[in-house]
Amino acid sequence: MDENDELVQDFLIESLEGLDRLDQEFVELEQDPARRDLLASVFRTIHTIKGTCGFLGFGRLEKVTHVGENLLSRLRDGEIALTAARVDVLLQMVDAVRQMLASIQRSGTDGTEDHAVLITHLAALTDGEALEEEEDDGPEPVTQRVGFEPEPEHEPQAEPEPVWAPEPEPVGVATQPPPPTRSADKQPLATDQTVRVDVRLLERLMDLAGELVLARNQIQQYAVTVGENGFSTVVQHLDLVTTEIQEGVMKTRMQPVGSAWTKLPRLVRDTAALVGKRVRLELDGAETEVDRRLLEAIKDPLTHIVRNAIDHGIESAERRAEARKPAEGLLRLRAWHEGGLVNIEVADDGGGLNLDRVRSKAVERGLISPDAASSLSEAATINLLFQPGFSTAEQVTNVSGRGVGMD
After folding, report:
1. What is the pLDDT of residues 321-351, one digit of tens each?
2. Is 123 exposed, middle or buried (0-12, 13-18, 19+ CB in 10 A)?
3. Model confidence pLDDT, tens digit, residues 251-277
4. What is the residue-averaged pLDDT of the chain?
């Protein structure tokens, strides 16, 4: 790998990490538009990507991020308000940037699409113009699901005061109240405390640690045979050091489960909008450490479970009103250590499983007979949900209905 390839790889790693943060930060901004620290963080991420991609010669990526940076600059400086339309288009920019980064990974180029429509929308919203979709009197999922006030007209001032959209009643997804922010000069630099290491190197270190343990055991057996006190003392020290090395190498494989949760606020926001529901997301235990391989293995199942909970578990606002529940549903993820195991729980405050409907669908699909359905236990009925192709949805949508995900 030559020097330029290494630069591109470093750029991709840092940019993709930044995009994962942006998904979460934009959702938090929807709930608290006055969070200037978040706007500053978002701006820095896009600014960094723009500067580096220009240096590396990715012109299309540079154009998109440059226009996005202009919009973020005016938002950061308080010259224009953070409206629903601006959040949506900025998230579209994040998706476009992620798409171009994926193209760079595959082919070494940022693709052939010029993203002209996206650039036009970003520029229009930077200039304070409204998109045509906002003027439509018909129902529009994006503008109805996020409770921001209409953007006030911008009038140039000599020294513009910060303008922020008033805090709305949350619609879509809400996260827990953010922790108190610190000033920029007090924020620790993560790059000074961490280093990126190839996973293959960690795997090799793990193998070597295992071989070292075997060698230690052989030496311990030999020490017992020799029976020499001085030699036994050295072996005891070797035993201690080897154990610490093994534990240290194992810890390098551990990651906080929260690293697999970074995309969930955006996922919940978008899924809730698609099905026309309001959902608040709560995350607890994000610092719980899990083996990296296990963490990678649970990402996709976790995504399907969360989408399923929003679509099937949490009721519509009308049904929640009938049940005297808050219009906003609650989705909670918890992670904790117990008895040497890691527990991850996904819970919602919906109406629960309709077991009769599950049995009926199972009979309809020929999975069980009507007689068997009538005597099927609760646990056995729930297990039917994990059958390939099984779904209780009335119709197929972009979110559910094909019975894929829970299997």
Report:
1. 999 999 999 999 999 999 889 999 999 999 8
2. middle
3. 888 889 998 898 899 899 989 998 999
4. 80
Output DSSP code: residue 384: G
Burial 139-162 (b: 16+ CB within 10 A, else e): eeebbebbbbeebeeeeeeeeeee
Strands across the sheet with 173-174, in order? Answer: 173-174, 278-284, 328-338, 341-348
Distance between CA atoms of residues 78 and 81, nearest Å: 7
Local structure of 35: helix, strand or coil: coil
DSSP string, 335-357: EEEETTEEEEEEEE-S----HHH
Q: How far apart are CA 393 and CA 311, in angstroms?
A: 9
Q: Which residues contact 325 (CB under 8 A, 6 or more apart)?
A: 315, 349
Task: State CA 273 to chain mean position distance.
Answer: 17
pTM of the model: 0.65
What are the DSSP calls for 214-254, one per residue?
A: HHHHHHHHHHHHH--HHHHHHHHHHHHHHHHHHHHHHHHTE
Backbone φ, ψ for residue 58 (5° rounding):
-95, 85
- Identify any residues that bridge with 279 across adjacent strands, giving them in sequence order: 173, 329
Q: Which two tokens stand for residue 162?
A: 């910060």
**Cβ-based neighbours of 331, under 8 Å, separated by 6 or more:** 268, 279, 280, 281, 282, 306, 309, 310, 314, 346, 347, 348
Residue 131 identity: L
Please report the domains of the chain, with CATH numbers, ordered by start residue.
Answer: 3-169 (1.20.120.160), 199-252 (1.10.287), 257-352 (3.30.565.10)
> What is the distance between the alpha carbons of residues 246 and 363, in angstroms, rounded to a whole number?
53
Sequence-distant (6+) residues with CB within 8 A of 396 are 402
